[in-house]
TrEMBL record:
InterPro entries: Gas-vesicle_GvpO. Pfam families: GvpO. This is Gas vesicle protein. One of its GO terms (biological process) is gas vesicle organization.
C-alpha cells in the first residue's frame, strides 16, 4: 500500500522526518478524500509521531474565504496511521484568536 518506505525497517521511517510527513499526508488524503495543504506541527513521540495537518475542506472564491481544517494525525514507528481527528475548522483569511 505505501511502497515508498522500507517495510520492516521502522528506523528508516523514524530517522527521516520528510518521509514521515509524506506518509502522514498520503494516508490522511486516502481516508478523508481531501489533499493536505501543509503540516503545521510535528512531534516525535515514544513509538511514533503526532502531526497537525491543514486541509482545505471547502474551496471558495475568493480563496481567503475557503474553509480549512486542522487534523491531528498519529503514526506508529513504521509510519502507519493509527488515528486522526479534526481539531479545528476556520476560514483561511481569518486570524487565529488563540494566537493572541
Amino acid at each position: 500500500m505505501f511502497a515508498h518506505h522500507e517495510q520492516g525497517n521502522p528506523e528508516a521511517v523514524m530517522a527521516n522526518p520528510t518521509e514521515t510527513l509524506r506518509l502522514a499526508c498520503e494516508q490522511l488524503a486516502q481516508l478523508t478524500g481531501r489533499e493536505p495543504e501543509s503540516v503545521s506541527s510535528f512531534q516525535r513521540l515514544d513509538g511514533g509521531w503526532r502531526l497537525t495537518v491543514e486541509v482545505v475542506e471547502l474551496a471558495r472564491i475568493p480563496d481567503t474565504t475557503s474553509l480549512l481544517a486542522s487534523y491531528e494525525v498519529e503514526l506508529d514507528q513504521e509510519g502507519s496511521l493509527t488515528g486522526y481527528r479534526r481539531v479545528r475548522r476556520y476560514e483561511r483569511g481569518r486570524a487565529d484568536d488563540r494566537a493572541r
